[in-house]
Amino acid sequence: MKRATLRDIAQSLGVTVATVSRALKNYPDISATTKQTVLATAERMHYAPHPLAVKLRQKSYRVVGVVVPDIVHPFFSDVISGIIEVVEALGYHVILSQSNESYEKEIRVTQMLLATGVDGLLVCLSNETVDVGHLRALQDYDLPVVLFDKINSGLDASTVVTNDFQGAYDAVTHLLDQGYTRVAHIKGPPHPENTRQRFAGYRAALAAYGLPFRPEYVGECHAVTHSEGVTFARQFMALPEPPDSLFAVTDSVAIGAITALREGGWRVPQDMAVIGFSDWAVCQLMEPSISSVAQPGYEIGRRASELLLREIQQLRDEQPLEHDHLVLDATIKIRQSSQRPAIR
Amino acid sequence: MKRATLRDIAQSLGVTVATVSRALKNYPDISATTKQTVLATAERMHYAPHPLAVKLRQKSYRVVGVVVPDIVHPFFSDVISGIIEVVEALGYHVILSQSNESYEKEIRVTQMLLATGVDGLLVCLSNETVDVGHLRALQDYDLPVVLFDKINSGLDASTVVTNDFQGAYDAVTHLLDQGYTRVAHIKGPPHPENTRQRFAGYRAALAAYGLPFRPEYVGECHAVTHSEGVTFARQFMALPEPPDSLFAVTDSVAIGAITALREGGWRVPQDMAVIGFSDWAVCQLMEPSISSVAQPGYEIGRRASELLLREIQQLRDEQPLEHDHLVLDATIKIRQSSQRPAIR
DNA sequence: ATGAAAGCGCTAACAT
DNA sequence: ATGTTAGCGCTTTCAT
């Protein structure tokens, strides 16, 4: 059936649209009978207000755009889930896009989002992105932008990130506290700030315990994959004085390393303790269960949304935008893979 | 800076909004000079058309709503990814909501989506949902709805699902073809059609190979968790004539079972072959790697979107809506856990 | 080549 | 208690 409008109801009742509009919205100055008839016909005609007309009139769209590099990733699913939780509670909706880690596509989807009329944008930059002119352009259109996880200081915007440094520091400290002294690290590539921070946390923890930094105990990934974990673990086992423990930049690398260790006849954690980063669901299912550093994805989504909604409100009130920079703690999850067996 | 409108440009140039509108859209009957100046001022004023005004005028919103029970789930991430791929290529956007497997919330979010003015809806029903009156109501508002994965025959709508029966049948056949004859099954609860189909596929495969159905080889989960896998595997091991292989309704159950088997001193696949369902990423990472049945999530997202967009178009053309019912094949991924060792 | 005017569907200030 | 009117920002037909 064709969608009914206020006018349809008004005409069929011989009143004006204004009356109908008021009747439907419980305005005080409306006769009980009129209200009744209007409500009844509206019901009968399956009337529903045209959302676009309402929004145009009220200048509020109530939609925020979200751009992540890759939806099919547990961390981003968590973030998105947190975002939806917060914004829906305030009657907002979420339009979701992905950049597929492509700078080109990121520009394209942010443009599309602007053209769709979102009230604000939550963005996790792609790994390729170094220039943020496209986001600055959005801000020029009075569109608030909040960055999370992968951020860029070139943009004057609120940011919400995990404390990768602290997470890494805690992970390594957990190893050192148990008496391990030769802690290896498989680090990520130099570009994303996140993995660089993890490396920094690793070095800082060693330094805090007065241990030397040994370059031969560090491997640098390019793609951050399972197979790189395999490669570096083999390398470590072949050293004249091999490490006794390993902090890997991600869980997939940690799992790759464990695979290689096992093939080489090394037991985990007896011959080498291992701790990863990200706390994927697999960590709990593997044997041994894998220790890892959990990122507060859901919380990042919530906090970033709160900041964005605040800025949207400030914009509406014609107040200056206040930016914030949140750094949320990561939590180490200690499981079997990193627990030193009792000393006999 | 305040957002510029057509009128702003028109006034600053001493022309009408109509002229500006035409100049910006490359209409033929517009002087080159006017076009130049308009374009220049538009640029200077950072003009961008107001999306809501355009959409209201053109009666096209170009947004589809998506409702899934839980975003943080690899299968749904895949589906969403497929949806976004297809609809963005046609200039549409995706508004995402989750029902958290709650019937109440499903009603709430579908209503919100209607109120937001989406052009159509892609829905995976919550496990709680038995009545689909809320979706029928949407259809009454001329809102096309396509169901995927968890569907309900009570609604006259297009559907896209995995062929759970065939996937299960193939999984069990794969075991039987290798000479296993005592195939156990840990099934899901009776309600969601999907897991019932898997059970049906299991029985059909046994029947096709002339094997008896043995109730003692079947366990029924309530929550479909890792720990239920543990419980049933222990039960199977304790049987006087234990099964030689197992088809589990999901990967988490399969992994639970493997854990229990290992604890009980049983080797996988030597003492019991195991195959799961869903093909989570973990399956490749575990040792032994776990065989599983892959659901075509991405493809489901694509196909469901295509059906929905077709219906949206048909509605616009005032043609009758054509419904389709697609059943996409699942693919068995054979890995170590289900491969019978060579017979010596 | 450009302007004037109507209208998408709704709201709200101002009448009566 | 209800009607009138003006607009939200844009597109498009019909004039000129």
TrEMBL record, chains A, B:
Any one GO molecular function term: DNA-binding transcription factor activity
UniProt keyword DNA repair, yes or no: no
One Pfam family of this chain: LacI
Signal peptide: none
Swiss-Prot/TrEMBL keywords: DNA-binding, Transcription, Transcription regulation
CDD domains in alphabetical order: HTH_LacI, PBP1_LacI_sugar_binding-like
Domain HTH lacI-type: 4-58
InterPro entries linked to this entry: HTH_LacI, LacI/GalR-like_sensor, Lambda_DNA-bd_dom_sf, Peripla_BP_I
Transmembrane segments: none
Keyword Ligase: no
Entry protein name: Transcriptional regulator, LacI family
Lineage: Bacteria, Pseudomonadati, Bacteroidota, Cytophagia, Cytophagales
